[in-house]
Amino acid sequence: MKLPCLFQLRILKVALASLFGRPYTTAFPKGGYTPSERYRGRPRYDETECIGCGACAEVCPSNAIEMIDDIASDAPRRILIQHLDTCIQCGQCERYCTSEKGIKLSTEWDYVGFARKDFEERVEKELLLCEVCGKVLAPIDQIRWLVKRLGALAFCNPTLMLVSHSNLQVVDRGFDPGDGYPLRARRINIQCPHCRRKTAMTV
Ligand code: SF4
Ligand code: SF4
Fold first, then answer.
1. What separation in Å is there between the alpha carbon of 94 and the centre of ligand 1?
2. pTM for this structure?
């Protein structure tokens, strides 16, 4: 009788260990599955922490984040839409998020849906427009974030000062002196840098 060789014995040992030991694979879909804490799953916005700056859309290598400035409506707003179907879960948006907490990769991995809309994550922010030319300035949350970071230095810039004080309801936003006054009369308005220069230089 031919005796089994060492290699065959080793295979037999592994087979017996597999038969009576714990399975190597997870029980999914019969049982649940908990991924590792460092698993890079579906990115999720945190509406209270996001300031709407759009940096995540700029750094996204697969253009999975769409940024729309809706200025046609009565309440101008910036809409950021993250499309999971084109996201490669690289984590760049989380890494370069200006507020550091606006978007985070979750550990969600078992997402399904029947329409592209099911794979969208969106956040909307009130948008601030220049009161002189009407161009987009920034989301109001971004301006408030900046005011907080600058502290007393924010008072050097009338736009930042006006936004922070309008929150306290001690100044009027959208002040219009009327046509009879020179452009300079609009210095104390919320303005884009271009209009700020124009109103400061015009006599
Ligand atoms: S994880 Fe990467 S691909 Fe996905 S939205 Fe963020 S930056 Fe874009
Ligand atoms: S705060 Fe972060 S998540 Fe929000 S728009 Fe800016 S970079 Fe994106």
1. 8
2. 0.80
